[in-house]
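Folding problem:
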Amino acid sequence: QLPPGLYKKVLVILHDSVLPYMNEPTLMMDFLTVAYGIGGAISLLALNGLFILIHQHNLEYPDFYKKLYSLLDPSIYHVKYRARFFHLTDLFLSSSHLPAYLVAAFIKRLARLALTAPPEALLMILPFICNLFRRHPACRVLLHRPAGPADMSEDPYVMEEEEPSESRALQSSLWEIQSLQNHYHPDVAKAAAVLNQSLSEMEDDISGLLELSAAELFDREVKKKAVDVPLEFEPVRGLFGKKNDIFAEHFSLD
Protein backbone atom coordinates (compact mmCIF):
# COMPACT_ATOMS: atom_id res chain seq x y z
CA GLN A 1 0.00 0.00 0.00
CA LEU A 2 1.42 3.35 -1.06
CA PRO A 3 0.14 6.85 -0.27
CA PRO A 4 -1.69 8.40 -3.26
CA GLY A 5 0.89 11.18 -3.54
CA LEU A 6 3.76 8.68 -3.76
CA TYR A 7 1.80 6.59 -6.27
CA LYS A 8 1.49 9.61 -8.54
CA LYS A 9 5.17 10.58 -8.25
CA VAL A 10 6.27 7.05 -9.15
CA LEU A 11 3.86 6.62 -12.05
CA VAL A 12 4.74 9.98 -13.61
CA ILE A 13 8.38 8.92 -14.15
CA LEU A 14 8.00 5.14 -14.38
CA HIS A 15 7.57 4.86 -18.15
CA ASP A 16 10.66 6.88 -19.14
CA SER A 17 12.96 6.79 -16.09
CA VAL A 18 12.51 3.24 -14.80
CA LEU A 19 11.16 0.77 -17.36
CA PRO A 20 13.79 1.45 -20.09
CA TYR A 21 16.59 0.64 -17.62
CA MET A 22 15.16 -2.61 -16.24
CA ASN A 23 16.44 -5.95 -17.49
CA GLU A 24 12.95 -7.38 -17.07
CA PRO A 25 10.30 -4.63 -17.34
CA THR A 26 7.62 -7.32 -17.12
CA LEU A 27 8.30 -7.45 -13.35
CA MET A 28 6.24 -4.24 -13.13
CA MET A 29 3.13 -5.88 -14.58
CA ASP A 30 1.45 -6.55 -11.22
CA PHE A 31 2.27 -3.10 -9.87
CA LEU A 32 0.89 -1.33 -12.93
CA THR A 33 -2.25 -3.44 -13.24
CA VAL A 34 -3.07 -2.85 -9.56
CA ALA A 35 -2.45 0.90 -10.00
CA TYR A 36 -4.64 0.87 -13.12
CA GLY A 37 -7.48 -0.59 -11.06
CA ILE A 38 -7.34 2.03 -8.31
CA GLY A 39 -9.19 4.65 -10.34
CA GLY A 40 -8.93 8.40 -10.70
CA ALA A 41 -5.66 10.14 -11.53
CA ILE A 42 -3.62 7.10 -10.49
CA SER A 43 -5.26 5.00 -13.21
CA LEU A 44 -4.59 7.73 -15.77
CA LEU A 45 -0.90 7.83 -14.87
CA ALA A 46 -0.60 4.04 -14.98
CA LEU A 47 -1.61 4.08 -18.65
CA ASN A 48 1.89 5.11 -19.79
CA GLY A 49 3.58 2.13 -18.22
CA LEU A 50 0.86 -0.27 -19.31
CA PHE A 51 1.15 0.97 -22.88
CA ILE A 52 4.86 0.12 -22.94
CA LEU A 53 4.25 -3.36 -21.49
CA ILE A 54 1.38 -4.09 -23.89
CA HIS A 55 3.10 -2.65 -26.94
CA GLN A 56 6.66 -3.89 -26.37
CA HIS A 57 6.43 -6.81 -23.94
CA ASN A 58 3.22 -8.61 -24.95
CA LEU A 59 1.28 -7.95 -21.76
CA GLU A 60 -2.24 -9.40 -22.01
CA TYR A 61 -4.92 -7.45 -20.15
CA PRO A 62 -8.36 -8.89 -21.02
CA ASP A 63 -10.40 -6.11 -19.36
CA PHE A 64 -8.14 -3.27 -20.46
CA TYR A 65 -10.69 -1.49 -22.68
CA LYS A 66 -13.48 -2.01 -20.16
CA LYS A 67 -11.37 -0.27 -17.53
CA LEU A 68 -10.34 2.46 -19.97
CA TYR A 69 -14.02 3.02 -20.76
CA SER A 70 -14.84 3.31 -17.05
CA LEU A 71 -12.23 6.07 -16.68
CA LEU A 72 -14.36 8.35 -18.84
CA ASP A 73 -16.24 10.46 -16.32
CA PRO A 74 -17.10 14.20 -16.15
CA SER A 75 -13.76 15.01 -14.50
CA ILE A 76 -11.74 13.70 -17.45
CA TYR A 77 -11.98 17.06 -19.25
CA HIS A 78 -10.73 18.96 -16.21
CA VAL A 79 -7.91 16.87 -14.74
CA LYS A 80 -4.27 17.92 -14.77
CA TYR A 81 -3.24 14.89 -16.86
CA ARG A 82 -5.89 15.35 -19.55
CA ALA A 83 -3.40 15.71 -22.41
CA ARG A 84 -1.50 12.56 -21.46
CA PHE A 85 -4.71 10.55 -21.11
CA PHE A 86 -6.17 11.51 -24.49
CA HIS A 87 -2.83 11.03 -26.24
CA LEU A 88 -2.70 7.43 -25.03
CA THR A 89 -6.42 6.84 -25.60
CA ASP A 90 -5.88 7.95 -29.18
CA LEU A 91 -3.14 5.33 -29.53
CA PHE A 92 -5.23 2.56 -27.97
CA LEU A 93 -8.16 3.30 -30.28
CA SER A 94 -6.03 3.54 -33.43
CA SER A 95 -6.24 -0.15 -34.33
CA SER A 96 -8.62 -0.93 -37.19
CA HIS A 97 -9.27 -4.38 -35.67
CA LEU A 98 -11.30 -3.05 -32.75
CA PRO A 99 -14.99 -4.06 -32.86
CA ALA A 100 -17.44 -1.35 -33.91
CA TYR A 101 -19.51 -1.64 -30.72
CA LEU A 102 -16.42 -0.80 -28.62
CA VAL A 103 -15.43 2.29 -30.60
CA ALA A 104 -19.06 3.43 -30.77
CA ALA A 105 -19.29 3.17 -26.97
CA PHE A 106 -16.23 5.40 -26.59
CA ILE A 107 -17.58 7.92 -29.13
CA LYS A 108 -20.99 8.07 -27.46
CA ARG A 109 -19.60 8.40 -23.94
CA LEU A 110 -17.15 11.14 -24.98
CA ALA A 111 -19.96 13.00 -26.73
CA ARG A 112 -22.27 12.74 -23.72
CA LEU A 113 -19.57 14.03 -21.37
CA ALA A 114 -18.80 16.84 -23.83
CA LEU A 115 -22.14 18.47 -22.98
CA THR A 116 -20.62 19.77 -19.73
CA ALA A 117 -17.01 20.20 -20.90
CA PRO A 118 -15.22 23.58 -21.14
CA PRO A 119 -14.57 25.08 -24.61
CA GLU A 120 -10.83 24.32 -24.58
CA ALA A 121 -11.59 20.62 -24.05
CA LEU A 122 -14.29 20.61 -26.71
CA LEU A 123 -11.92 21.99 -29.34
CA MET A 124 -9.77 18.93 -28.70
CA ILE A 125 -12.42 16.23 -28.33
CA LEU A 126 -14.45 17.09 -31.45
CA PRO A 127 -11.51 16.45 -33.85
CA PHE A 128 -10.73 13.38 -31.71
CA ILE A 129 -14.23 12.00 -32.40
CA CYS A 130 -13.89 12.85 -36.11
CA ASN A 131 -10.68 10.81 -36.26
CA LEU A 132 -12.45 7.82 -34.71
CA PHE A 133 -15.10 7.99 -37.44
CA ARG A 134 -12.38 8.07 -40.09
CA ARG A 135 -10.70 4.96 -38.67
CA HIS A 136 -13.91 3.05 -38.08
CA PRO A 137 -16.46 3.74 -40.86
CA ALA A 138 -18.89 1.21 -39.34
CA CYS A 139 -19.55 3.71 -36.53
CA ARG A 140 -20.86 6.36 -38.93
CA VAL A 141 -24.34 4.97 -38.37
CA LEU A 142 -24.29 7.23 -35.30
CA LEU A 143 -24.24 10.21 -37.67
CA HIS A 144 -26.39 8.99 -40.55
CA ARG A 145 -28.89 6.43 -39.35
CA PRO A 146 -30.91 5.11 -42.33
CA ALA A 147 -34.18 5.02 -40.40
CA GLY A 148 -33.60 8.53 -39.08
CA PRO A 149 -33.75 9.83 -35.50
CA ALA A 150 -37.55 10.25 -35.68
CA ASP A 151 -37.96 6.55 -34.85
CA MET A 152 -36.24 7.05 -31.49
CA SER A 153 -38.61 7.96 -28.68
CA GLU A 154 -35.60 8.09 -26.36
CA ASP A 155 -31.85 7.53 -26.51
CA PRO A 156 -31.18 3.76 -26.24
CA TYR A 157 -27.63 4.38 -25.00
CA VAL A 158 -27.13 3.31 -21.37
CA MET A 159 -24.67 5.74 -19.82
CA GLU A 160 -24.44 3.86 -16.50
CA GLU A 161 -23.47 0.54 -18.14
CA GLU A 162 -19.84 -0.36 -17.33
CA GLU A 163 -19.57 -2.98 -20.08
CA PRO A 164 -19.13 -1.29 -23.51
CA SER A 165 -20.76 -4.21 -25.32
CA GLU A 166 -23.95 -3.76 -23.25
CA SER A 167 -24.19 0.04 -23.60
CA ARG A 168 -26.23 -0.12 -26.86
CA ALA A 169 -24.16 2.69 -28.33
CA LEU A 170 -24.51 1.45 -31.91
CA GLN A 171 -28.29 1.75 -31.64
CA SER A 172 -28.02 5.41 -30.65
CA SER A 173 -27.22 8.67 -32.46
CA LEU A 174 -24.98 11.64 -31.75
CA TRP A 175 -27.60 14.21 -30.79
CA GLU A 176 -25.03 15.62 -28.36
CA ILE A 177 -22.88 16.86 -31.25
CA GLN A 178 -25.91 18.51 -32.82
CA SER A 179 -26.49 20.30 -29.53
CA LEU A 180 -22.89 21.52 -29.53
CA GLN A 181 -23.48 23.09 -32.95
CA ASN A 182 -25.41 25.75 -31.02
CA HIS A 183 -22.61 26.29 -28.50
CA TYR A 184 -22.00 29.82 -27.27
CA HIS A 185 -18.35 29.69 -28.38
CA PRO A 186 -18.20 30.14 -32.18
CA ASP A 187 -15.10 27.94 -32.59
CA VAL A 188 -16.82 25.05 -30.81
CA ALA A 189 -19.96 25.42 -32.92
CA LYS A 190 -17.82 25.46 -36.07
CA ALA A 191 -15.88 22.35 -35.00
CA ALA A 192 -19.13 20.49 -34.23
CA ALA A 193 -20.62 21.47 -37.60
CA VAL A 194 -17.84 19.56 -39.40
CA LEU A 195 -19.73 16.33 -38.75
CA ASN A 196 -22.61 17.59 -40.89
CA GLN A 197 -20.35 17.28 -43.92
CA SER A 198 -18.56 14.30 -45.43
CA LEU A 199 -15.32 13.76 -43.53
CA SER A 200 -12.02 13.86 -45.41
CA GLU A 201 -9.77 10.80 -45.32
CA MET A 202 -6.92 12.75 -43.73
CA GLU A 203 -7.00 12.64 -39.94
CA ASP A 204 -6.89 15.85 -37.92
CA ASP A 205 -3.70 16.49 -35.96
CA ILE A 206 -4.82 16.93 -32.36
CA SER A 207 -1.33 17.11 -30.82
CA GLY A 208 -1.45 20.90 -30.72
CA LEU A 209 -4.88 20.87 -29.06
CA LEU A 210 -4.12 18.48 -26.19
CA GLU A 211 -2.47 21.18 -24.08
CA LEU A 212 -4.91 23.97 -24.98
CA SER A 213 -5.90 25.91 -21.86
CA ALA A 214 -8.64 28.39 -21.06
CA ALA A 215 -6.05 31.19 -20.80
CA GLU A 216 -4.69 30.43 -24.28
CA LEU A 217 -8.20 30.34 -25.69
CA PHE A 218 -8.96 33.70 -24.11
CA ASP A 219 -5.73 35.25 -25.44
CA ARG A 220 -6.55 33.96 -28.90
CA GLU A 221 -9.92 35.71 -28.82
CA VAL A 222 -8.46 38.95 -27.46
CA LYS A 223 -5.83 39.14 -30.19
CA LYS A 224 -8.38 38.81 -32.99
CA LYS A 225 -8.74 41.98 -35.02
CA ALA A 226 -12.05 43.66 -34.43
CA VAL A 227 -14.23 44.19 -37.47
CA ASP A 228 -16.07 47.50 -37.75
CA VAL A 229 -19.76 46.72 -37.90
CA PRO A 230 -21.93 49.44 -39.48
CA LEU A 231 -24.87 50.22 -37.24
CA GLU A 232 -26.72 52.50 -39.68
CA PHE A 233 -26.65 52.22 -43.45
CA GLU A 234 -28.88 55.17 -44.34
CA PRO A 235 -28.77 58.60 -42.72
CA VAL A 236 -31.81 59.44 -40.64
CA ARG A 237 -34.11 61.86 -42.49
CA GLY A 238 -36.82 62.26 -39.87
CA LEU A 239 -38.34 60.74 -36.79
CA PHE A 240 -40.13 58.03 -38.80
CA GLY A 241 -37.99 58.04 -41.92
CA LYS A 242 -39.84 60.74 -43.84
CA LYS A 243 -38.15 64.05 -44.48
CA ASN A 244 -41.10 66.39 -44.21
CA ASP A 245 -43.59 64.56 -42.00
CA ILE A 246 -45.67 66.29 -39.35
CA PHE A 247 -43.58 64.80 -36.54
CA ALA A 248 -40.47 66.57 -37.80
CA GLU A 249 -42.20 69.89 -37.12
CA HIS A 250 -42.70 69.13 -33.43
CA PHE A 251 -39.90 66.67 -32.53
CA SER A 252 -36.15 66.79 -33.04
CA LEU A 253 -33.60 63.99 -33.05
CA ASP A 254 -30.91 66.19 -31.45
In short: The mean pLDDT is 83. The chain has eleven helices and no strands.
